[in-house]
Amino acid sequence: MTQDPTPMAPSRPRGHDFTQRPLSTAECRVLGTLMEKARTVPDSYPLTLNTLVSGCNQKSSREPVMNLTDAAVLEALDALRALHLVLESSGSRVTRYEHNFMRAVAVPEQSAVLLGTLVLRGPQTAGELRLNTERWYKFLDIASVDAFLEELQDRSDEKGGALVVKLPRAPGAREQRWAHLLCGPVDASLLAQSSNTSNSAATEDELIALTRRLATLENTVAALQDQLQNLNEQLGLSQPGQP
Question: Where, residue-wise, is CATH 1.10.10.10 in the chain?
């Protein structure tokens, strides 16, 4: 029996179609946290389960704040692995997890950064996204953020369809916000009701400066929490509030 001398190319996961299988809120939080920590704390990445749970439930840079259990995070990880969105690595004394978002969904780095930030922080304007992604990726200007968002919104059906949507302008808002579609279609009316946008007397420069200072503080707190979690794991200590 003759053997075909041509080796078969390894199969590559196709882009995931979120219109067919929207992610749950827990799956989104787990995925977004892995995407964030890969950028912000590369020394402790891939993440252990304990670090991942802590990142999912942190109080800063999260909208909404969640309280996921270890079991809920493990269930989300199993589902994400089935979609090729998360990889499990062994070889150390503890299992670690990393995201595979860019390859599985076939999007560039900049688009993945914007999606990850929308997943973790909720709907935002292009200006807010540029500020909130500074630790992940430094966009040249707001126009470049808009360009990648438009590309994600106009994504063809062959590639899995749109991954973001531009929301209607909220009452009193100067700019429109963007939302991700990884969990399926969004209810723009509910999002408008929960918008914190108001007619403020502050200038745009003052708002940008305040947002930048807040983002810096949130990022500092998150980084310190990650370092403490990693140190406790290395020393075999439990986290405060845990037995």
Answer: 25-104+219-231, 108-188+202-216
